[in-house]
């Protein structure tokens, strides 16, 4: 056999990505057998019934089939502003959706992204430092590929984290340097934890090169305060780290105490010397927010204080992939410059968007409250993003049963949950957690009208499970 | 001065003690200090070589974590000429042309550097785009007016596809290998093409064929001791990907004199040489039809290659993205899977990965980023790893997936759109064949130029016998001779081609790659300008 398992790149074997791992595969098997499965393993809104926004789909449909624009009856099917916008985006391409664009993305769309960033933050943004990518994940991989030279290079990653980071660092042969978020402080980030993690890594000979923040957090949902962001940026300045700001959930905010504020804005506001010296790469996407266009694969990253020659190298590597897909670039353009008041499609667009965001806010609360009403379950409020990450305090009996079944305790729990209720979640071990403390991640995306039933189903399973395994010997907990 | 230099050196040593990897600047100062005095010197620092020179702005920002000398050296090492230096110059010229029209002997830049048909006027296939539009905005399917604007079979196909997507949600992440129903259609298409069954579970859909190639390189390469046999000349995705993954490219030379033929003796020779150097050769990459060389392999040749891979325990990576671009009646495309199966080699006998894309053929949908790899002959534990890699990126874009399924199962006789589909397809293919012939003939007429015919793909790769004077002038300009020629060509005519050194070639030979893609009406002007330029170039440099 030319290719045996033993001969594979070790880095590939080591990497893990639980979001589509064991639980998901088991759920898919059960689905094939006819069981009704509620997939809450991935932030995939449209798969759970969220409808796409009408306006962007109209625009992109016209871009897919430009000959429609020549048909005198096109106005019967498409509003005038969608038609105008389709013509606008087609004019930005050099041959429509079917031609490779500039490897960094269409200049016209990057300009619109820059204008969006400027409006959002109040500071200028350079389109030349914005690269569009096939999803934000590809951008993260490109930047980490640039930063990681070998296992001597460490990347600070929050625990719990979205496992794209751990998987990519593994694949690239680097070292993950964890910093723990504090569950008892609403998943807060304590700079002292950061300092400890860095010191420990350095004592092991690791060169810590970058720090990842996910804001709002995934799976934890917390929104960083401005003060926190300042501390982090100052920390990166002192420790010479490039900050990777994963801000893909910036439009998913469910409380008013801590609105989203971008890392770039805080950095610029800090003034000299920080604003000219701290290196920052910020990531965004069309997959989340109220758009939820996961299947398009559209994202971008913006670079701040990255030397021109390094930007060139990143461009060079991007050019090997030729170009990001053009339809998604148009979705990105539309996302950053949506219909305005006065536009024909504005009312419908505003109605659809508002409807989705308000419902997400309600579902965040329903889920948090639902989990908190369950025996041995404690759940921090979902301040932002799309997930709920309850802590499940497993009794010793359950830990023993898991061991006997050869499963990690939260995997054991989640498999039982799946089999009993059809709810497919991701065990907390897929995201990292403190030793001996167990969680699961679910999304807040199931349809609002189905939520009460889902939470009832969960409570019934959980409370029965706890009773079954409760032998009075204590529980897992922080 | 000496005290200043020593104290500077001491400062840098202190700084570099905090960061283990020194930059070039500190090394220079350290050696100054060492020469003049017994100042302490760091024990042999690791120097990362860089292909670019140290510019002031980068070395002065040595306090930043991410600078040219501290990024991944594999990134610095890899090259991709298709969008390299020549293209950057062309883009600057194009900008300047807008304001300085009269400064140039041409009025437009013609990009012949990249296989990007729709950027040069090729139209997409109407039926495919109708289906995509309907899947983009599914509300259209509920409107009666839609029937007036779309063909009936495109509406039917859109319904069929949407029924295969859970919840008809085209905006949702799909299965990480691609939507099952679409993979079924692709498998059926492969079976119809080859006469041998294909399993939808063997198919991994990707954003273009290139990510599939990267995945395989990632899987196969653990260190520079792992080698991949690649054709020379090759499409530089392979060399770049191998460099990025830290492996070794093991070249095998195609024979220009015999129409870019692939000799097994050459494969054997290169394999043995690599092994003698301690390299474990893991795979053989074959591009058929070839890029940049355009040759279509004879079936007998393919059988030899399959046998070779089986005998030597190599994975066969078959880049077949140009399978629908064959322009000569005496050659036909045969997939390596078909060849292997017809030799009696099944799943247990040979590891084969076949790559296909929606970017080429007659559909030319580069910007949609669609493609797949069909992975056969791997054990399930290896396939699990491929699945895992695919899952980290969740899935490829849905629109590209839909298009890939359409490409592999286009309209059939009797379908409403069949006649117009066939007319569009044959129009494009016959025009490509015509342009291939016209440009090939024109190139062969040039002094000192020989050009093999383009049997397939989208390129011509002429060999220029550059006079010594030209080579000397290139050296003086610190440019590779073929790049020197291509830059002169660009500046004189506005035509952008890629120097052969971007694809590698037999040392001492010079080529350039030119696409056959400009529209037919532009071809005469291109031929004239190229001919005129070449004549004046030879007049200037003739020995």
From TrEMBL, chain A:
Quaternary arrangement and interactors, per the entry?
Homodimer.
List residues of the Aminotransferase class I/classII large domain.
81-456
Report the catalytic activity: glyoxylate + L-alanine = glycine + pyruvate; glycine + 2-oxoglutarate = glyoxylate + L-glutamate
Pathway of action: Photosynthesis; C4 acid pathway; Amino-acid degradation; L-alanine degradation via transaminase pathway; pyruvate from L-alanine: step 1/1
Indicate the transmembrane segments per the record. none
The Swiss-Prot or TrEMBL record lists the needed cofactor(s) as: pyridoxal 5'-phosphate
Q: Which UniProt keywords apply?
A: Aminotransferase, Peroxisome, Pyridoxal phosphate, Transferase
> Which family does the UniProt entry place this protein in?
Belongs to the class-I pyridoxal-phosphate-dependent aminotransferase family. Alanine aminotransferase subfamily.
Q: Which domain of life is it from?
A: Eukaryota
One of the protein's GO biological processes: photorespiration
Q: Where in the cell is it found?
A: Peroxisome
Pfam families hit by this protein? Aminotran_1_2
InterPro entries in the record: ALAT1/2-like (IPR045088), Aminotransferase_I/II_large (IPR004839), PyrdxlP-dep_Trfase (IPR015424), PyrdxlP-dep_Trfase_major (IPR015421), PyrdxlP-dep_Trfase_small (IPR015422)
Question: Which GO MF terms are attached to this record?
Answer: alanine-glyoxylate transaminase activity; glycine:2-oxoglutarate aminotransferase activity; L-alanine:2-oxoglutarate aminotransferase activity; pyridoxal phosphate binding
According to the UniProt record, one GO cellular component term is: peroxisome
Q: What is this protein called?
A: Glutamate--glyoxylate aminotransferase 1
> Which PANTHER family does this one have?
ALANINE AMINOTRANSFERASE, ALANINE TRANSAMINASE
Automatic annotation (TrEMBL), chain B:
Q: Which residues form the Aminotransferase class I/classII large domain?
A: 168-523
Give yes or no: UniProt keyword Manganese.
no
The EC number(s) this enzyme carries:
2.6.1.2
Pfam families reported for this sequence: Aminotran_1_2
Q: Among its keywords, does the record have Nucleotide-binding?
A: no
Cofactor(s) the protein needs:
pyridoxal 5'-phosphate
Entry keywords, A to Z: Aminotransferase, Pyridoxal phosphate, Transferase
Q: Its quaternary structure?
A: Homodimer.
Protein family according to the UniProt entry: Belongs to the class-I pyridoxal-phosphate-dependent aminotransferase family. Alanine aminotransferase subfamily.
The record's listing under PANTHER family reads: ALANINE AMINOTRANSFERASE, ALANINE TRANSAMINASE
Quote the protein name from its UniProt record: alanine transaminase
Q: Which organism is it from?
A: Raphanus sativus
């Amino acid at each position: 056999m030319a290719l045996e398992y033993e001969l594979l790149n070790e880095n590939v074997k080591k990497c893990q990505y639980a979001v589509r791992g064991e639980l998901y595969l088991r759920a898919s098997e059960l689905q094939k057998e006819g069981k009704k499965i509620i997939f809450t393993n991935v932030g995939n809104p449209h798969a759970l019934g969220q409808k796409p926004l009408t306006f962007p789909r109209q625009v992109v449909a016209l871009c897919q089939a430009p000959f429609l624009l020549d048909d005198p009856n096109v106005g019967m099917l498409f509003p005038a502003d969608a038609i105008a916008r389709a013509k606008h985006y087609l004019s930005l391409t050099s041959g429509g959706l079917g031609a490779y664009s500039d490897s960094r993305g269409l200049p016209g769309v990057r300009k619109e992204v820059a204008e969006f960033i400027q409006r959002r933050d109040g500071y200028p943004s350079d389109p030349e430092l914005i690269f569009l990518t096939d999803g934000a994940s590809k951008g993260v991989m490109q930047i980490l590929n640039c930063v990681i030279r070998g296992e001597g290079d460490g990347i600070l990653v929050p625990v719990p984290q979205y496992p794209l980071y751990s998987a990519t660092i593994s694949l690239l042969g680097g070292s993950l340097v964890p910093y723990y978020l504090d569950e008892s402080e609403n998943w807060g980030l304590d700079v002292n934890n950061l300092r400890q993690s860095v010191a420990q890594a350095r004592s092991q000979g690791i060169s810590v090169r970058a720090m990842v923040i996910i804001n709002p957090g995934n799976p934890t949902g917390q929104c960083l305060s401005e003060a926190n962001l300042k501390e982090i940026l100052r920390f990166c300045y002192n420790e010479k780290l490039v900050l990777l700001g994963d801000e893909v959930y910036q439009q998913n905010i469910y409380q008013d105490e801590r609105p989203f504020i971008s890392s770039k804005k805080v950095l610029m506001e800090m003034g000299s010397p920080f604003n000219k010296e701290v290196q920052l790469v910020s990531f965004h996407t069309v997959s989340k927010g109220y758009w939820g266009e996961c299947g398009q694969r559209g994202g971008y990253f913006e670079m701040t204080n990255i030397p021109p020659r390094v930007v060139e190298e990143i461009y060079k590597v991007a050019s090997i992939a030729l170009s990001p897909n053009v339809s998604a670039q148009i979705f990105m353009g539309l996302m950053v410059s949506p219909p305005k008041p006065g536009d024909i499609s504005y009312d419908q667009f505003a109605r659809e968007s508002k409807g989705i965001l308000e419902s997400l806010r309600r579902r965040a609360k329903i889920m948090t409250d639902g989990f908190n009403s369950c025996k041995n379950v404690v759940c921090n409020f979902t301040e932002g993003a799309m997930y709920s990450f309850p802590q499940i305090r497993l009794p010793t009996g359950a830990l023993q049963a898991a061991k006997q079944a050869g499963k990690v305790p939260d995997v054991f729990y989640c498999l039982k949950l799946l089999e009993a209720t059809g709810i497919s979640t991701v065990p907390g071990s897929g995201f990292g957690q403190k030793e001996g403390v167990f969680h699961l991640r679910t999304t807040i995306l199931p349809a609002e009208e189905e939520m009460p039933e889902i939470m009832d189903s969960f409570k019934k399973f959980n409370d029965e499970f706890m009773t079954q395994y409760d032998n009075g010997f204590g529980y897992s907990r922080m | 001065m000496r005290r200043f230099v020593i104290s500077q050196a001491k400062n840098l040593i202190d700084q570099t003690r905090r960061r283990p990897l020194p930059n070039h600047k500190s090394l220079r100062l350290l050696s100054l200090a060492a020469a003049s005095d017994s100042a302490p010197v760091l024990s042999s620092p690791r120097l990362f070589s860089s292909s670019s020179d140290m510019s002031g702005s980068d070395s002065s920002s040595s306090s930043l974590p991410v600078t040219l000398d501290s990024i991944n050296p594999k990134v610095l090492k890899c090259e991709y000429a298709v969008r390299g230096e020549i293209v950057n110059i062309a883009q600057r010229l194009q900008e300047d042309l807008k304001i300085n029209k009269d400064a140039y002997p041409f009025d437009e830049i013609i990009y012949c550097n990249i296989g990007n048909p729709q950027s040069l006027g090729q139209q997409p296939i109407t039926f495919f785009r109708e289906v995509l539009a309907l899947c983009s905005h599914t509300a259209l399917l509920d409107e009666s007016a839609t029937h007036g604007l779309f063909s009936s079979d495109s509406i039917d196909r859109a319904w069929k596809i949407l029924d295969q997507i859970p919840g008809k949600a085209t905006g949702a992440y799909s299965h990480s290998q691609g939507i099952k129903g679409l993979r079924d259609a692709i498998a059926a298409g492969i079976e119809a093409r080859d006469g041998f069954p294909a399993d939808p579970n063997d198919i991994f859909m990707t954003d273009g064929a290139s990510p599939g190639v990267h995945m395989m390189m990632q899987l196969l390469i653990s260190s520079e001791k792992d080698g991949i046999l690649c054709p020379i000349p090759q499409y530089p995705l392979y060399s770049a990907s191998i460099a990025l993954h830290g492996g070794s490219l093991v070249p095998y030379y195609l024979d220009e004199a015999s129409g870019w033929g692939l000799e097994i003796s050459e494969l054997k020779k290169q394999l043995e040489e690599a092994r003698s150097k301690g390299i474990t050769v893991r795979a053989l990459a074959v591009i058929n039809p070839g890029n940049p060389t355009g040759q279509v392999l004879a079936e007998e040749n393919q059988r030899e290659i399959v046998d070779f891979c089986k005998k030597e325990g190599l994975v066969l990576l078959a880049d077949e993205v140009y399978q629908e671009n064959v322009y000569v009646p005496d050659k036909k495309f045969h997939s390596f899977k078909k060849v292997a199966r017809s030799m009696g080699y099944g799943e247990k006998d040979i590891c084969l990965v076949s790559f296909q894309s929606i970017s080429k053929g007659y559909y030319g949908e580069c910007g949609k980023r669609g493609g797949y790899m069909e992975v056969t002959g791997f054990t399930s534990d290896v396939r699990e790893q491929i699945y895992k890699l695919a899952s980290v990126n969740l899935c490829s874009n849905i629109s590209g997936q839909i298009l890939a399924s359409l490409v592999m199962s286009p309209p059939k006789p009797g379908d409403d759109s069949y006649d117009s589909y066939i007319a569009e397809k044959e129009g494009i293919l016959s025009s490509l064949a015509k342009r291939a012939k016209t440009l090939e003939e024109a190139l062969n007429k040039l002094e000192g130029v020989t050009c093999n015919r383009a049997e397939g793909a989208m390129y011509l790769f002429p060999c220029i016998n550059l006079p010594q004077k030209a080579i000397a002038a290139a050296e003086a300009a610190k440019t590779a001779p073929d790049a020197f020629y291509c830059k002169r060509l660009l500046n004189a005519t506005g035509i952008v081609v890629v120097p052969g050194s971007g694809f590698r070639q037999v040392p001492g030979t010079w080529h350039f790659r030119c696409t056959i893609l400009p529209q037919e009406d532009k071809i005469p002007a291109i031929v004239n300008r190229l001919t005129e330029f070449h004549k004046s170039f030879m007049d200037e440099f003739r020995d």
